[in-house]
Write a sequence for this structure.
């Protein structure tokens, strides 16, 4: 007895090539969105654990400016 995945694969293989390409594009897009969502959730959890989830844009930009200055002082010191 074929599995649902096997049945779908057979149905897709029987379709016109242009329809198959459209299906694969949709699958790729859905997979990409799901992966992006999962990454976003992991990043939010990391920020939450560090107590940084509710930082404002100004706080983030200030932190980035400080990091940039530290890197410049370390890597480009005369």
């Amino acid at each position: 007895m074929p599995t649902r995945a096997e049945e779908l694969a057979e149905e897709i293989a029987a379709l016109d090539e242009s329809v198959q390409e459209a299906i694969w594009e949709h699958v790729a897009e859905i997979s990409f969105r799901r992966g992006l969502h999962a990454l976003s959730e992991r990043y939010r959890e990391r920020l939450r654990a560090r107590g940084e989830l509710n930082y404002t844009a100004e706080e983030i930009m200030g932190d980035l400016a400080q990091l940039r200055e530290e890197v410049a002082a370390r890597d480009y010191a005369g």
User: Anything to note?
Assistant: The mean pLDDT is 94. The helical segments are 4-13, 17-49, 57-75.
